[in-house]
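[Help] Beginner question about ligand-bound structures

Sorry if this is basic. My supervisor gave me a protein sequence and a SMILES string for flavin mononucleotide and asked me to "get the holo structure". I don't really know what that means in practice or what format the answer should be in. Inputs are pasted below exactly as I got them.
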Amino acid sequence: MLKDKKILIGVSGSIAAYKVATLVRLLVKQGAEVQVVMTNAATEFITPLTLSTLSKKPVFSEFVKDETGSWNNHVDLGLWADVILIAPATAHTLAKCANGICDDLLTAVYLSAKCPVIFAPAMDLDMYRHGSTLENLKKLQSFGNQIVSSNYGELASGLVGEGRMAEPEELVEILKEKFDNKISQKLHGKKILITAGPTQEPIDPVRFISNHSTGKMGYAIADKLAKAGAEVTLVSGQVALSLPDDSINLVKVRSAKEMFEASEKYFSDSDIIILAAAVADYTPATVADKKIKKKEETFNIELTKTVDIAKTLGQQKRDNQMMVGFALETDNEVENAIGKIKSKNLDMIVLNSLRDAGAGFGHDTNKIRIIHRDGSMKEFDLKSKQDVAQDIVEAISARVVEN
Ligand SMILES: Cc1cc2nc3c(=O)[nH]c(=O)nc-3n(C[C@H](O)[C@H](O)[C@H](O)COP(=O)(O)O)c2cc1C
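Answer (accepted):
No worries, everyone starts somewhere. Holo just means with the ligand present. The predicted complex, written as structure tokens, is below.
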């Protein structure tokens, strides 16, 4: 998959630079053509000689090659690459790239590039969590760059926390995903709204009506999309899951009303909308302001309909937006799912069946059928939710029209 791919590795001055030797070795072994560009600070951490030996190419750091006046052409380097991976990306280099400062070869190459750019930050946990670093990461992402979340673990400072650069093997996988089935080319920079998890409809200050959704499917899809370079906003009900990718904009909600309001807020700016949440159809008509006391033998709660998020957004959908729904049916599954495509103006529906063992709520596996608006349908085997997420993302990207 990486054979003959032109990969430019930008190395900046972090202790994690030693990992680049392994990264370059792995990439060259897979047949990739690797060009290393280092900042001056990076050369203090690993020698250009090591990286030029492993990449089988001269390593560049400076604009000007020697006293003859010949120079390394940053524009050509930027245009040569199929993908640029800046790893490790220091706080300093991130800040420069986020703000258009190009006072060295690497940052000038970055500004000249037209290909996808991936940053793999590495730094101490406080530097990583500093407001300015977070702002810079957000800014870089808003320009369509992909950020590879740092790992949690022991740091060179001796502290333990987030900030460790992703391992070379992980970075190779991310690069492979970039070239995988053109998914990344199609989804890179696309704005995607995804809802996930259950809603909670309050009865009184301590009780609510909810459902068994764990959010695992929606979170797995959000992760795949983010790894493909999409700008993902995840509107999530209350779930016990951690955010799978730091680049995801997480909006936490509780009730169907909150989920609707958050979804509507991001809807018009989204290219693709995936509605994977299990939203309550009904909510208590009134919410008691004090805890309801146990008195009578029976107790009734009057329920009223919630806003139909899919239907309401479907009515506002533009021709250049794609909307994907989910259906969990117990009978007349396909018929009902096709009915939902029409009534909610969806482009595609993912049908889960509660009849299949291991599928649906709470399981780590799922078995789906994907039905398109044109009536075409594909049935998939029982798979892990990660693999199902991959199938869904592939189905979505296959319908994305390339710009
Ligand atoms: C031993 C040592 C380790 C460092 N590790 C990091 C690091 O992991 N991440 C980071 O952002 N800066 C780190 N720094 C600071 C950078 O090297 C410094 O900000 C430098 O100016 C970065 O330049 P560059 O981004 O042009 O490569 C380290 C400095 C030293 C001396």
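A couple of things worth pointing out: Residues 12-16, 39, 41-42, 90-93, 122-123, 127 surround flavin mononucleotide (CB under 6 Å). Residues 189-398 form a domain with the Rossmann fold fold (CATH 3.40.50.10300). Feel free to follow up in the thread.
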